[in-house]
């Protein structure tokens, strides 16, 4: 095996602020710098990952596993924050650094990579022995989304700067697109990159073969059942302690009220308004923040995975899980726990099956026919697409199909058992992550309640016959249905929604007497904020659920207005600037969100608030095309250009990123270009300047 590693102060990142070092303990942060002794003598790669919601972290671990399996080399996976960046020039020649970086905001690094990027970008960067990285060899993988203008900006900037500093890249910069398939982009990039890495470092394939990341021990005796995790995410949750809630310790918030926002019986979709009671929890929020909702998996998928792995009878068995290589793989959830809790709360078994997971399970097929089928599917991208992805099949379903089993829930007990070691399941299935919702209330109006506006996702896959149900939005919809004791008829748009276990770990998510459920949540801060001055015009564009944060913005201004009037009298708002909301939905009588509230807000704001509405399937342009928010914006172009260019208006766009947000930006660029007497490029430059000055902000998703 090639030489040893000698890194001091290696760097890495991760939203969870956990470190993958020796001596790692779940939930604890180890802050000492890394030294040679800690690393041992067999680590040849250092991976630094910048992740906000865990995808970059997951892919960093995947690269690490693969390098270890193929070449028998040690890989140290590290969080990019906190560490001593200036020692990067000490990485020996027979080591390489692998950077796995996601991009956020508008081309910004993830929270935990901000300091790292600032350090690297500074013109007077100083490492321990100078200002160059001539000895450093590195590999770069970026995670982004093409619907964002600044696609994979972080890894691009890192790579450019590394080159300037004299570091030598191995392979191409990998760029994964979350809008298409991170998985496929990663698979297309990694083989050639790993080969070039091996060539560069003189590594030989076949050194180790298949390796385990974890040991699993089924516990026959449980010394303290109160310490077993049944779906809780943090030690404090075991005792039901309230307080200190964040991304590691969500708050099980009582659902204060919840109702349907679309017109029932008319709309072909459902949209849930939900208010969470956060009084006494210590949770606070600001307008523009996001609420993270921690979903659970549907019972049918939980049972399917248990059945396929032959664990139906052992669902309540308590297991203890230890990492065999904490520098590389951490146990992705708290333990000891049960098989049932792992599939219900901790692993993402409801996502579409991934080709990589299928490849990892080929060796454990129950018979030769299943093995051959699975191998083909995992190797042939087109076959996988047409037979699996285009049907929206999930992992458990694929394993059943490949073994020739029925997918009907009632046939689960007779399904073929796959002898997959449980440690491989943990290694190959992503952990379940929270979903984010733009908060739709203002803390000035509802300090103790956080509102969200969630459209319920249900779609037909290109080739499937059955609907696919989005995980978290249908979980929220089920909470609403159960809490309000609603019945669902055959014609109801919710008919067929999967069944979720809503009572939570130890039944703590249901207050039987009050008939009230709890949902685990935490608040994520955002930079999507109103200007402080009420004299600056505000232009908000939010069709569909994109209106959510603007309800919060308008409520915020209403609360300020009411106070101002109380203090200054009836004329208090006379020098306030216009607040304009461009909203779009399909039809007034179908999906107009919060229709009755806007008039009330306008009155309280002395009609400084203007609502412009496009009804895309009811009111059309003269040429017969759909009239969208950007058509209204174009109609108002003279006024908008004046507000943006002369009155320094702040512009906000929220909602669907790929079509709507891009079309709206395109329209704004046209308007501003013309107003400035130039062309489209002039408008684009103006938009860029507005973004740089935080006068144009986007909160979009795909
Ligand atoms: C910052 C931010 C703010 C957000 N705010 C809101 C909000 O205010 N309101 C709101 O309703 N949502 C909002 N979302 C979206 C929300 O986070 C979830 O993504 C959404 O509710 C779907 O989650 P789910 O768990 O139900 O679906 P999942 O189970 O996560 O399924 C979603 C996945 O299904 C696939 N998919 C979706 N539609 C199709 C289709 N037609 N064909 C094929 N595949 C498809 C895609 O791969 C998609 O990623 C926001 C997202 C972000 C990032
Ligand atoms: N992450 C997720 O999975 C997630 C979560 C929420 C929403 N979404 C997706 O995001 C999209 C928006 O969802 P939504 O429910 O909030 O909104 P929506 O109800 O689908 O759309 C709101 C309005 O925007 C219009 N619209 C469509 N394309 C547009 C464009 N290019 N420019 C301007 N307006 C446009 C729609 O018109 P028409 O429909 O008549 O064309 C409709 O009038 C949907 O595709 C939805 O599936 C995804
Ligand atoms: C709010 C938000 C903003 C984003 N901004 C960008 C962006 O500006 N450029 C980009 O390429 N990707 C952007 N993305 C996509 C993420 O980089 C991508 O989803 C990535 O897989 C996230 O990795 P993580 O889970 O490790 O944080 C954004 C995603 C979200 C949710």
UniProtKB/TrEMBL annotation:
InterPro entries: CysJ-like_FAD-binding (IPR003097), FAD-bd_FR_type (IPR017927), Flavdoxin-like (IPR001094), Flavodoxin/NO_synth (IPR008254), Flavoprot_Pyr_Nucl_cyt_Rdtase (IPR001709), Flavoprotein-like_sf (IPR029039), FNR_nucleotide-bd (IPR039261), NADPH_Cyt_P450_Rdtase_alpha (IPR023173). It holds the Pfam family FAD_binding_1. GO terms for molecular function: flavin adenine dinucleotide binding; FMN binding; NADPH-hemoprotein reductase activity. Keywords: Cell membrane, Endoplasmic reticulum, FAD, Flavoprotein, FMN, Lipid biosynthesis, Lipid metabolism, Membrane, Mitochondrion, Mitochondrion outer membrane, NADP, Oxidoreductase, Steroid biosynthesis, Steroid metabolism, Sterol biosynthesis, Sterol metabolism, Transmembrane, Transmembrane helix. It is an enzyme of class 1 (oxidoreductase). One of its GO terms (biological process) is sterol biosynthetic process. GO terms for cellular component: cytosol; endoplasmic reticulum membrane. Residues 248-501 form the FAD-binding FR-type domain. This enzyme is required for electron transfer from NADP to cytochrome P450. In the C-terminal section; belongs to the flavoprotein pyridine nucleotide cytochrome reductase family. This is NADPH--cytochrome P450 reductase. It comes from Malassezia psittaci.
